[in-house]
Amino acid sequence: MVMPIIALRMRREVVGMANQIAVLKNASEVRLEEQFTTLQATLPGLAQTRAAAFREFSSKGLPNKRVEEFKYTDIRTFLTDIVPLAEKPSTADAHAVLGTAKAFRNVDAFRVVMINGYFIAELSDIAAVPGGVEVIPLAQALADSHPLLGKIGSLAKAGDNPLYQLNSAFMSDGAIIRIGKEVKLGKPLHVRFVSGSEALATATRLLVLVEEGAEVTLVESHEGPDGTASQMNDVVDLIVADGAVVEHVRLNAEGQDVLALSTVTARLGAHVSFSSINAVAGSKVARHQIYVAFEGSHSTAQINGTAMLSGQQHADATLVADHIAPNCDSRELFKTVIDGDAVGVFQGRINVAAEAQKTDGKMMSACVLLSDTGAMFNKPELEIFADDVQCGHGATCGTLDDDLLFYLMARGLPRPEAESLMIQAFIGEAIEVVKHDEVREELIGSVANWLKHRR
Amino acid sequence: MLEINNLVVAIEDKRILNGLNLKVAKGETAAIMGPNGSGKSTLSYVIAGKEDYEVLDGEVLLNGENVLEMEPDQRAAAGLFLAFQYPLEIPGVGTMTFLKAAINAQRKTRGEGELSTPEFIKKVNAAADGLEISREMLKRALNVGFSGGEKKRMEILQMALLQPHFCILDETDSGLDIDALRVVSEGVNALRSPDRSFLVITHYQRLLNYIVPDTVHVMSSGRIVKSGGKELALELEANGYADYRSSDAA
Q1: How would you label B195-224 residue by residue, b for 16+ Cβ within 10 Å and e otherwise?
Q2: Best of B41, B95, B98 to disrupt the A interface by mutation (most A CBs within 10 Å)?
Q3: Which residues of chain A have pLDDT under 70?
């Protein structure tokens, strides 16, 4: 049985060698190529960037398990079909779709509304944001060749990533958000990504510029109905200047049939305090990529993730932290709970450049397996070229502690309640990073909600 | 109240309890003393329902009902309480959250309504004051970073709040200094009543100076080998367990 597979693999290589361009493509790759060719002329702005990104993507194709970074999340297998790229909905349709969204609805915040990946100005609070803050629809900025567009996709390493390349090629809308110098935004900026009941693809991009000494809590929520096999591929590029404080919270509450691909890039200046959490509470397949670059000294970053998975769900969190400047601290804490046949993946990599002395990095991934058929893959990596650093990583996988369970039950808690309390505590540790009380409470509530439906 | 008949228990094929018989009447405080490895802690865990043990024979009747067929939470709702020798730390679970969950779970199982929050806080504060437990301790995660003495006091606080009928104290004196021992003992004594029984498990007679038992039982090799009044504890303190160890060989 092994022989034909080897033969097939050789054939791919031979074809590749004989003709550098004609790599064998599967149906989805062909479909993407057709889509790009058709839409190229109508997608707003940055034509050369888009073409270059697609060419890069196309040269390697959809990432699969033979590509190390995608070893446990074979996008080629998950993307057997390509749905059409969403078009901008009418305001009335957008209004109806927004009505279905619940996440962080009661949190007092400045709202930016993205329906099917498109900025809906009429439903957003652009006018309400204080002086020094700009929120510009990306499609408009692209059409107008806005000067800030030069800052899009400026983290070179992310540019090598095929999912990022796809977003760069297809990005149809999104926003440029600029928090001016020393502006301390009192309320969170909440970007609500909501999709409708038609299966569509989205490629949104947020470019978030946080200038010197500014402070912001950026909340993203991603929601949509069950039963709709939409394909999201969203990117957030953050550029955080010296002395800024950024809290980034992302909630994946997508419908249970959604393929949700997302990338966050963060370039941090000096003396920055940055935190980011991605909470997976939805979608069928999720892959969240985080690229953090410590470009200035004395900055701290806390990167957390939580995932509560059941059924056939698959969730991947892939992190690359690049310590380029000295004296920076990074902390990564990922918590995964797995039930049913679900699969969790954590790939975390901390790179410490030779100049990045006194780096202090600690990375932890912990998983609780509630079923015998679920699986968790942990792949922590450290690459250190400096000689005066503290770096560590850990990964655990296990069931709920029987002794703790007995202790709680001996106090009268029935088994499901005792388990729930333990799971809430387990996930809660990663959610604690969120300083905004209402946002944190809602994330904790989403844990309770998951537990309730699990029972 | 509690009646144990011919209890035989093994863990991984090793017999720990070998036909143990014991009766504790309503309102009685019984002490079990015995050397290391005699099966005292196993007895407390088996009564409370820990899973690791295999019950090969016998029964444990609480008010006539065999608790061995119940889940640990059902036993707790039936009025059983085990104060752990080593109370567990539960990171992430606030002490108050835990206490409220436990109280309301038991009330629910018994078909009673949930306590309102003000009622609950009032009860906790009153009980905590008696045990010299600070408000700050109540704010922390359950037992996390507590000293040995604080953990034991927290066990007694839980006992006071849950108002069980039958309390097992598993080496509650271990790891306590004199002052903590006094506070814990006073907490226990305050709960003694004609309706509540205690089974006090200890190595040393010292605890029994504070919590004076009605009966003392000597345990060795998984059996009760001698029973008597509180004077038996003093006799053990003077002579050690040597007289009873010979039966270990059996």
Answers
A1: ebbbbbbbbebebbebbebebbbbbbbbbb
A2: B98
A3: 1-23, 455
**Residue-range definition of the domain harbouring residue B196:** 2-249
Paired tokens of A406: 């007995």
If we measure between CA atoms, which residue out of A190, A142, A131, A189 comes closest to residue A168?
Answer: A142
The Cβ of residue A108 has, within 10 Å, a number of other Cβ atoms equal to 10
Contact A413 B102 (CB under 8 A): yes
Gap between the Cα atoms of A372 and A370, Å rounded: 7
- B13-18: which pairs have CB atoms within 8 A and are 24 or more residues apart? B15/B56, B15/B222, B16/B42, B16/B53, B16/B222, B17/B42, B17/B43, B17/B46, B17/B222, B17/B223, B18/B221, B18/B222, B18/B223
CATH number at residue B70: 3.40.50.300
CA pair distance A171, A206, nearest whole angstrom: 10
DSSP label of A346: E
Interior angle at CA B150, CA B149 and CA B151, nearest 5 = 90
Between chains, do A409 and B77 touch, taking CB under 8 Å as contact? no
Between chains, do B102 and A415 touch, taking CB under 8 Å as contact?
no
Widest CA span of chain B, in angstroms? Answer: 57
Q: Which residues of A touch B103 (CB under 8 A)?
A: 412
- The tens digit of pLDDT for each residue in A108-167 reads 999 999 999 999 999 999 888 999 999 999 999 999 999 999 999 999 999 999 999 999
CA distance A164 to A427: 29
Q: Residue A229: its pLDDT value, please?
A: 96
In whole angstroms, what is the distance from residue B103 CA to residue B96 CA? 11
A418–B162 C-beta distance less than 8 A: no
Which residue on chain B is closest to A431 by alpha carbon? B92
Alpha carbon separation from A237 to A101, A175, A178, A264, B74 (Å, rounded): 24, 10, 12, 6, 53
Q: Is B52 helix (H, G, I), strand (E, B) or coil?
A: coil
Structural contact between residues B193 and B28, judged by C-beta atoms closer than 8 angstroms: no
Task: State which residue of chain B sits closest to A428, comparing Cα positions.
Answer: B92
Cβ of A410 within 8 Å of Cβ of B49? The answer is: yes
Q: How far is A416 from chain B (nearest CA, A)?
A: 11
Q: Which two tokens stand for residue B247?
A: 């039966």
| Cβ-based contacts of A403 with chain B (< 8 Å) | 88
pTM of the model: 0.86
Q: What is the ipTM of this complex?
A: 0.94
User: Inter-chain contact B101–A413, Cβ cutoff 8 Å?
Assistant: yes
Query: Which residues from chain B sit within 8 angstroms of residue A333, using beta carbons?
Result: none
Q: Do strands A201-202 and A215-223 pair parallel, antiparallel, or not at all (unpaired)?
A: unpaired
Q: What is the pLDDT of residues A408-450, one digit of tens each?
A: 999 999 999 999 999 999 999 999 899 999 999 999 888 888 8
Instruction: State which residues of chain B have pLDDT below 70.
Output: 245-250
Q: Report which secondary-structure segment, H or E, holds A351.
A: strand A343-352
Measured distance CA(B162)–CA(B120) in Å, rounded: 11
CB atoms within 10 A of CB B12: 7
Structural domain count, chain B:
1
